[in-house]
Amino acid sequence: MNFASDNVAGASGPVLEALVRANEGPSPAYGADPLTLEVERRLGSIFEREVSVFLVTTGTAANALAIAAAVPPWGLCLCHEESHLVDDECGAPEFYTHGAKLVGLPGTGGKLKADQVEAYLAGRPKGVKQMPPCALSISQVTEAGLVYSLDEIAALADLGRRHGTAVHMDGARFANALVALGTTPAEMTWKRGIDILSFGATKNGCLMAEAIVVFDKALAETLAYRRKRAGQTVSKGRLLAAQFLGYLAEDHWLANARHANAMAARLAGGLGRIPGVRFAWPCEANEVFSIIPRTVDDALKAAEIIYHPWTTGSLLSGERIGADEVLIRLVASFATRQDEVDRFLAVASGSPQSAAKTSAIA
Would the pTM of this model clear 0.90, i.e. be above it? Predict the structure, then answer.
């Protein structure tokens, strides 16, 4: 059983079937194919407005190029101090902006708060000696598995507008947040002030396909060139587009996200009934951050269940990890099965019959 990440799951059936169909016969290269044009039309329909779409193969590319479009080499991008931009992109945003800096700000559960960002901006000296803030980036879902509410997004975006910064959303788990809120893509993005979005699909069923979706036309002007220079203008672009067509067809992407969220909720519900277990943050999407006794951690490892231990500086106020405890991250995906969740919970709870069955299956 593997709960390390939603990246460990393969591609979903509809995505693979769309790829096989797109593979037949010749088609124009470098994104001039009809499938790529159809993806842009489809995303325009989903977001209820005209959008510019740039398909890429990785979330790192989507984030770094989106930030580069918004931030000049002398500018700053504000984000959470534990965001993917800061911790997991190996300096790609700084590389593609040719020297701009990321400013990581604190916030419980990976969330930025408008008043804290406002205080930072108000305290910055002005003048040519200081790099000006040019973008604000938020992660939806956050690195702690939390979901920004529509009001929280709007407050941060309004702050960005007042201070002249573009607002970027890292939507690696966009679909999971969307179904958690029960809202629409338009309401969670441009209608709340988002200018540019990294629209994730790989974690939720695609093979390797992400999209930069641009709502502010000015930010789209250089992206075709930036994408090419980054080696992300794929020659057989139809095979990227095909993944998105399979992903978006008949709301497959939303069904995948609902399933992943439901499996995470089942994990959280079961763990919450085990003595000595508590949660670093609420389970709001498809991730569970649980503080468990080391004895439970030992039992899970003995059963060869895979997950990540976690470190963080954004715990809830007053929360501490004891010497005999471990903070772990569990991630459910579109491919997570209910019986896998139940076997995990059986081992964690120390149920002899179920744990023995789990061991035999493993």
Answer: yes
- Average pLDDT taken over every residue of the chain: 95
What residue type is 170 in one-letter code? D
260 within 8 A of 176, measured Cβ to Cβ: yes
> Which tokens is 226 given?
């930036």
Contact status, residue 243 vs residue 201, Cβ threshold 8 Å? yes
pLDDT band at 351; cut points 50, 70, 90: low
Contact 93, 67 (CB under 8 A): yes
Among 101, 107, 49, smallest CA distance to 82 is for 107
Give the per-residue pLDDT at 249.
98
How far apart, in whole angstroms, are the C-alpha atoms of residue 212 and residue 99? Answer: 21
Pairing of strands 101-105, 52-56: unpaired
Q: Tell me the CATH class for 12-252.
A: alpha beta
Q: Which of 211, 195, 201 is nearest to 254 (CA)?
A: 201
Six-digit token pair at 139? 């992660």
> At 168, which helix (H) or strand (E)?
strand 166-171
Comparing CA positions, the residue from 265, 184, 224 lying closest to residue 36 is: 224
CB 244 within 8 A of CB 56: no
The residues with which 200 forms a beta bridge, in sequence order, are: 210
Pairwise CA distance, residues 361 & 117, whole Å: 50
In this predicted structure, the answer to whether residue 42 has a pLDDT above a threshold of 60 is yes
Residue 358 CA to residue 340 CA, distance in Å, equals 9
In CATH, the number for domain 253-361 is: 3.90.1150.10
Given this model, what pLDDT does residue 358 score?
Answer: 39
Q: Are 100 and 134 in contact (CB under 8 A)?
A: yes
Cis peptide upstream of residue 141 (ω within 30 degrees of 0): yes
Task: Let me know the angle formed at the C-alpha of 110 by 107 and 112, rounded to the nearest 5 degrees.
Answer: 50
Q: What is the pLDDT of residues 184-206, one digit of tens each?
A: 999 999 999 999 999 999 999 99
Report CA dihedral (245, 247, 250, 256) to the nearest 10 degrees: 180
Stated as kind and residue range, the H or E segment containing 240 is helix 238-248
Q: How far apart are CA 238 and CA 262, in angstroms?
A: 32
Q: Is 149 helix (H, G, I), strand (E, B) or coil?
A: coil
Domain residue ranges in the chain: 12-252, 253-361
